[in-house]
Amino acid sequence: MAGATRTTADAALQEDYQPLVREQINNDCKILTYVEKNTEDTDGRRAVLSLHVGRSGGVGSRAEQGTLPTRGSQDFAEQRVSLYSHYGRGSVTGQLIKAADSGKSAAFIKALDFEMKAITNDLKRDYNRQLWGTSDGKIAQAALTTSSLQVNLANGDSGATTVASDVQFRQLEQNMLVDIGTVAAPTLKLAASEIARTGGSGTSADPYWIEVGAVATTTGTDFIFRAGNGGSGASQKEVTGLQTIVDSTGTLHNVNPTTYNVWAATENSNSGTNRQISETLMATVVQTINIASGTWPNLAVTHHGVFRAYANLLLGLKRFNDTVQLKGGYGQGIPFVGGGGNTIPVVVDRDCPANSMYFLNTDHLTEFMASDWEFMEKDGAVLSRLESTDEYQFTLFKYSEFATDRRAAHGKLLDLTSA
Known about the structure:
Radius of gyration: 24 Å
Low-confidence stretches: 157-163
Mean pLDDT: 83
Shape: globular
Helix content: 10-25%
Distance between the termini: 60 Å
Number of helices: 7
Order of helices and strands: HEEEEHHEEHEEEEEHEHEHEEEEEEEEE
C-alpha cells in the first residue's frame, strides 16, 4: 500500500482537520458559544448596520382643540464594523514527507496531528484573549525597568493597585514573541523578541516579570504586545474586546456616546479601591442595565478570584443555590437573580479582567465573519514550500470582528476584592 504524499497530505488537512479546528476553537472560547455568528451582513471588508439611537419628539398630550405636538422623527446612526485578519501557521519538513512517501505514513500523520492540535490550541488561546482585550493589542503595562533583560509588569486591571494581575501575567508565556512600546509605536523599545522566562510571585515586593532580549529602559508608558498585534484606530489589528465594548465612553463601531447617550454601557466602580462583592452591588448593575436598555443580561462572567468571593458570599449566607448548566460543555455556573425574573449564570473566564464582573446580554453580541477558520489554498495546495528551506507550511486564516448592536445592554462591576 502506498504511503502518504503531498497530495494526500493536502487532502487530509482540508477534509479532516478544518472542521475540527473550527469546532475546537469556537467551543473553547466561552463567549463565542453564546453569541450569533453573522456572515450575511459582511461585504468582505466590514458590516454596515443601522442603529436606532433616538426616539421621536413628536408625542404629547393636549387639551381639547389644543395644538398638536410638533412632528418629529426617529434618530438613526450608521454602525460600521470592520473585519480584522487572524492567522495561524505551522509546518512539516521535507524529510518527514519523504518518510511518509516511503511507506511510513504513520510518522507523517502523527506529526501532522500534533502540529494541528498545537496550532489550534495557540489560536483559541490568543483569540479568547482578544475577545477580553482592550482592542489595541495591549496585554500588560511595563513598569520602570533598568535591567536589559528583565521587564517588570506594572499596575494592571481595575483594582490591581500594587501589581499586575495574574490575568495579564498568564497571557505572557514562554517562547511568545512580543513587542514593547506605546500603542502609537508598539515596537519603540523592543520588536519581536522571544520571552525566555517568566517569573515573580505577584506581590509588590516581587512583581511579575518577563525575560526578553536586550531592551531599552521601560517606563509606565510602555506596554507589552504580541509581536505585530499592537495598534488602534486605523492601525487596529485585533478584534474589538469586551473591555472596549462594555464601556460608558469612547467611540465604538463609528458611534460616539457623546453624540448618542444611549450608546453607553453601565459601569459601577469604586475609584480603584477594591470592595467586597455583594448581591446588592450585582443587582444595581443588572437593574441599571435594564433601565438603560429595556433588556436584562443573561450571562455574568468574572475572574477566578471574584468567582470565589461570590461563592463564599453565598456560603456565608447559607444559600448556595442550584447550579445552572452552561452551553458548549462548560459545566455549570452559580445562578444570580437580579430582578428581571431570569436566572443569570455566573461563570469564570481565564481572560476576564481581574477584580471585575461583566454582565452581558449575549443576544446583543455578534461575531461578524467573512468566513470561519480556513486553510490558505488559493494556489491549489494547503501545503506550500518555504523558500530556501526543505520545509512545507500551512496557514489558517479568519476575517472577523466582535461587536454589539446595543451597547447599553451590557455592564460591568469593577473594583471587587478577590478571594
